[in-house]
Amino acid sequence: MMKSKNIRYTYQPGAYNNSKFPLSRSAIDEFLECKKCFYTNRRLGLKKPSQIPFNLNSAVDNLFKNEFDKYRREKKQHPIMEKYGVNAIPYSHNELDIWRQNFQGVRVEFMGTDIEVFGAVDDLWIYENGDIIVVDYKSTSKSVNNLFHSINDFNDVWEGGKIYKRQLEVYQWILFKKGFQVSNDCFLVYANAYKDKQEFNNILDFEVTLLKHVGDFSWVEGVLLDIYKLLNSNEVPESSSNCELCGYVEYSNRLFL
Question: Edge to edge, what strands does the sheet with 123-127 contain?
Answer without folding.
Answer: 88-90, 123-127, 132-140, 182-193, 206-214
